[in-house]
């Protein structure tokens, strides 16, 4: 559940920094790029939701503080986000303009620049295929994964057998292999999409 931040309390921002972590309560400097900021937002939404204090820094040996954040940075970042619910509010901290981003957990997949991210060791990382399957609710259906795996094996065997027969006709062989693989990929995609939409329909 998203942790509520009471910004009416005096010195709420320094307190936020004191309790920041690498998972759901992050502090990011004003110098971050809009793409990197969007990746963090996507990653947090794809985890369990959380908060980002933008324009804050804390470095060992250098101390902690606040930096003025350009409003364009936040706007540009928002423009490349998809399927993300967030509340953005600007605040003043020690005469610097900072932003609080409160990010809800995504019900489906949250994207930054058309790619889904997840938090790993305090950094946004591209989601793996397995994480995507689990996030889409297909991870529990091992029978589906087994069926797809069997079909790929069978199709590979067919292509291999066919290529043996057509060794002397290399051009034709390549065309047939391409058609078979293309047809199978189309069938596989439609099957997986049907499963996804059926699961969505039942929920």
TrEMBL record:
TM annotation in the entry: 179-200
Keyword tags: Coiled coil, Membrane, Transmembrane, Transmembrane helix
UniProt domain Schlafen AlbA-2: residue ranges: 25-109
Origin: domain of life: Bacteria
Positions in coiled-coil regions: 145-172
InterPro entries: Schlafen_AlbA_2_dom, Schlafen_AlbA_2_dom_sf
Name the UniProt record assigns to this protein: Schlafen AlbA-2 domain-containing protein
Organism the protein comes from: Shewanella youngdeokensis
